Amino acid sequence: MITMRLRFLRLLSTVLLLGLLSSTSQAANPKPPIRLATTTSTEQSGLLGWLLPQFTKETGYPVQVMAAGTGQSLKMGENGDADLVMTHAPSAEKKFVDAGFGIEPVHLMYNDFVIVGPAKDPAALAKQHDAAKGLQAIKDQGQTFISRGDESGTHIKEKTLWQAADVKPEFAGYKSIGQGMGPTLTMASELGAYTLTDRGTWLAYQSKLDLAVLLEGDKRLFNPYQVILVNPKRYPDLNTEGARTLKNWLVSEHGQKLIGDFKVAGQALFVADANGK
Questions:
Q1: For residues 195 and 145, is the Cβ–Cβ distance under 8 A?
Q2: Interior CA angle at 64 toward 62 and 70, to 5°?
Q3: pTM to 2 decimal places
Q4: What is the pLDDT of residues 102-122, one digit of tens each?
Q5: 206 with 114: CB under 8 angstroms?
Q6: Beta carbons of 128 and 134 less than 8 angstroms apart
């Protein structure tokens, strides 16, 4: 009996030692961080705070988020300062890939843009269904429009709408502030002004703002997001293995469900669309 007990204790000690060695090895050799350059909308909406802790828990990869406008995020990719990008400006993303900076672009999700402004709506945007005509009305009625002015995906979309309206955004009420979506919404609320916002950030911020959605539904306000790996042929030191793991996780059935499950005030902010075109 004593011999059997000794054998058991020796076996238990061996198992505990192996477990300790394994834990020590993992702690000494952690997985390298993944550098994700993305838009302020994915961060300020709360989506990344919802997704990334779960990804790290499941894969062991930590993620360093660098949130900026789409233009700045793509520039980080061009400079090799990011391992992958998550952005929402299709024309800029195509140039990024065509120039050889990005590889394996995949659709991830979408939401839409909306024009918000004071509930009294002095430019009568609520009567419009065409976003370009809505911007024209803001100018014609002498109202204030707050632009992000930061070459983000939202700013790029805004500029295409001004072009469609055949209006140069140089009128007295046009204010370009070079800030992210959150500060832009806050300023519009404080000034009783109009602005263009992605719906995700709007839903995350609306309870703090004295603004209302006034124009929505125009097909030109569709807002698709892609995730793109930075080309390792340009920068061999990239964490491409980790970046591809994150990309595949995001577009997997599991990742897509998590995106669809993310809600603020009971409303889904993004529609998972990994198979979209």
A1: yes
A2: 140
A3: 0.81
A4: 999 999 999 999 999 999 999
A5: no
A6: yes
